[in-house]
Amino acid sequence: MKSYIKWIIYSLLIVLVGIQFIPTSINQQEITPYTDIRKVYTIPDNVLTILEVSCFDCHSNNTNYPFYSRIQPMAMLMDKHVREGKEELNFSEFGDYSDRKKRNKLFSIQNQVKDGEMPLSSYTLMHNDAKLTANEKKLIEEWITNL
Ligand code: HEC
């Protein structure tokens, strides 16, 4: 092998091992706070399941971490998604939002789901079960319309 190729491979390996030491936070909470969306609205079981499977990893205080998501650089990516996702919409803190903000967020959920923007495609690549079927989209849409 040409020496510079070896050099590149060794460097990459060192970087890959090195980044494993970058700490990332774990987004998990034991309790269900009173501000949780489940305590704010009645959510039919089938809709709740959809939200839990497809949205809660990034939009709640409880993320399920499959083993690969604790390996860098995936852990950093997940961390970023959770931080940015919760900033925009946190189902665990929904009860703290003003009435106006609640309405806006529900409207935004309908739109993001209808347009296929959420869940993020980089996420459904690894979480096939999080992809929303046409019927699941309809269930979310109807639940919000009937609130
Ligand atoms: C992999 C993480 C991830 C998943 C899973 C995910 N989201 Fe998001 N979501 C984000 C991030 C990051 C943002 C902010 C940046 C952006 O809009 O791309 C966001 C933004 C949003 C917004 C915009 C909020 C606003 O006020 O404009 C809504 C609404 C939303 N998500 C709803 C959902 C719903 C509903 C689901 C499940 C069907 C879902 N998301 C699944 C990461 C995620």
Give a concise summary.
The chain has 147 residues and is an all-alpha fold.
Q: What would you say this structure looks like, in words?
A:
It is a single chain. The protein has 147 residues and is mainly alpha-helical. It has one domain. Helix content is 56%, strand content 0%. The longest helix is centred in the N-terminal third of the chain and has 17 residues. The radius of gyration is 19 Å and the shape is elongated.
Helix segment tally: 8
In the predicted model, the low-confidence regions spanning at least 5 consecutive residues are: none
Distance between the termini: 65 Å
Major sheet attributes = none
The hetero compounds bound to this protein are: heme C
What fraction strand? under 5%
In N-to-C order, the SSE pattern is HHHHHHHH
The overall pLDDT average reads: 96
- Globally, the shape reads elongated
Topology:
Blueprint: H1 3-19, H2 37-40, H3 45-54, H4 56-59, H5 74-88, H6 99-114, H7 121-124, H8 134-145
Bound molecules: heme C.
Heme C (HEC) binds at residues 54-55, 57-59, 81, 84-85, 88-89, 105, 108-109, 112-113, 118-120, 123, 132.
Quickly list its features.
147 residues; mainly alpha; 8 helices; 56% helix; binds heme C; transmembrane helix; membrane; Haem-binding domain-containing protein
